[in-house]
Specification:
single chain, about 425 residues, transmembrane, MgTranspt_CorA/ZnTranspt_ZntB, magnesium ion transmembrane transporter activity, about 50% helix, 9 strands, CorA_TM1_TM2, 7-stranded mixed beta sheet, membrane
Length: about 425
């Protein structure tokens, strides 16, 4: 912890361990009230979560980083009030059973309970400092800095790393449903979690700890389990909404009228896009949780205990069920899409049949009228016409009668032919 505490002539807003100051670490520990809170520190020994803009703001006045992480409360100010409220008795001296983090046993949580430091959008300097302080392997640091997208579980000498993907849950955000990587480093004494965009998961887990603190033992393994469980539960409402939409599409795709199916293709496409996005996010989660649950035994030194393995097996069942449901919804949407296209094809076929029927009637009418037009056209030429010099309408009426008889015979023959063909 001494790496956290440099010494310069300009003290920061909070004094850390007397003469030790933290503003000497450039890019990490300088303060600024215009920046958002990026660090959240929780410990079973403290009554509330500490939120800070930089690492230097985490310890209270008169409290060192070692005291903070080992659960030593800050000393009283002037003998009257503590710098931060706490339900446990405050003392300026360390207890007799106190041991630094590096000297505490790896297989048991310290007497003050587990700590949890959540970091949003860590810088390269902060990652280097945290890697030195907590002895984080360079490969783990590289995965976090490069925002590794593959979900996995890796065991190291003094910790294990869980890469688990969540998503942007703000429905009004332009990045809604985009992947959000969570990196969880679990020690025996505490947990480090990293993410590069705001997410409600840490707050949800802290709220859950507050509700269940009297009934459970909050350990670093339990905190990692709670984070994984909260990420898994975040998919539940989305999958339920997709289920309602899929059922609606499946029922309406074949019964809607032609005027009401204009937006059906858009609904199918939007729903399939959500399903495929969730399937991509759910891809390797069940395998990661299964791999972590398998290591919950005495053969793995840093793996979670067996009771956490039961919780992880329950999460695995939920993940498998949700993945199967999404695959089922994708099949239903694929079938609905095919049914929609088939319905459109049937409607287009009906329209073509109607057009062909009208065209066949027009063709029959033209067949009857063309010979009549030929006769009248011949009589309209500048030639001698039979009966031209006769003062009588006998020729004219005879020609009209012949044309009418031809029209009747042709129309009747065409009607009989079309009826016989049908």
């Amino acid at each position: 912890m001494a790496l956290f505490e440099g010494s310069t002539s300009d003290p920061p807003p909070f004094t850390i361990d007397g003469a030790h100051t933290t503003s000497g670490i450039p890019g990490i520990l300088h303060t600024g009230h215009d920046r958002p809170y990026r660090f959240s520190f929780y410990s079973n020994a403290f009554p509330a979560t500490v939120h800070a803009r930089s690492l230097s703001e985490l310890p209270a006045e008169g409290q060192s980083f070692s005291d903070l992480f080992t659960g030593i409360p800050p000393p009283k100010r002037g003998g009257d009030q503590p710098t931060r409220p706490s339900p446990v008795p405050l003392a300026g001296e360390r207890p007799s059973n106190y041991k630094p983090i590096s000297e505490q046993p790896r297989h048991s949580t310290s007497d003050t309970g587990a700590w949890w430091l959540d970091i949003q959008n860590p810088t390269d300097e902060e990652m280097k400092m945290l890697s030195k302080v907590f002895s984080i392997h360079p490969l783990t640091t590289e995965d976090i800095q490069m925002e590794e997208t593959r979900e996995k579980i890796e065991l190291f000498r003094n910790y294990y790393l869980v890469c688990f993907r969540s998503f942007d849950q703000d429905p009004y955000s332009p990045t809604h449903l985009e992947p959000l990587n969570m990196y969880i480093i679990v020690f025996r004494e505490g947990t480090l979690s990293f993410h590069f965009r705001p997410t409600p998961h840490p707050q949800n887990v802290r709220r859950r700890i507050k509700q269940l603190k009297d009934y459970i033992s909050v350990t670093s393994d339990w905190i990692s389990y709670a984070l994984i469980d909260d990420i898994t539960d975040a998919f539940g409402p989305l999958i339920q909404g997709i289920e309602y939409e899929v059922d609606s599409i499946d029922e309406l795709v074949l019964i809607l009228k032609e005027a009401e199916t204009s937006d059906m293709l858009r609904r199918i496409g939007t729903c399939r896009k959500k399903v495929m996005g969730l399937l991509r996010l759910m891809g390797n989660k069940a395998d990661v949780v299964k791999g972590l649950a398998k290591r919950c035994n005495e053969h793995w030194r840093v793996a979670p205990t067996s009771d956490i393995g039961l919780y992880l097996s329950d999460i695995q069942d939920h993940l498998i069920t949700m993945t199967q449901n999404l695959n089922h919804y994708e099949k239903i949407l694929s079938r609905s899409h095919s049914n929609y296209l088939a319905q459109i094809s049937i409607e287009m076929t009906d329209a073509n049949n109607q057009i062909n029927d009208v065209l066949s009637k027009l063709t029959a009418l033209g067949t009857v009228l063309i010979p009549m037009n030929l006769v009248t056209g011949l009589w309209g030429m500048n030639v001698h016409v039979p009966g031209q010099n006769i003062e009588s309408y006998a020729w004219f009426l005879s020609i009209i009668a012949v044309l009418a008889a031809f029209a009747i015979i042709g129309g009747y023959s065409t009607y009989r032919f079309m009826v016989h063909r049908r």
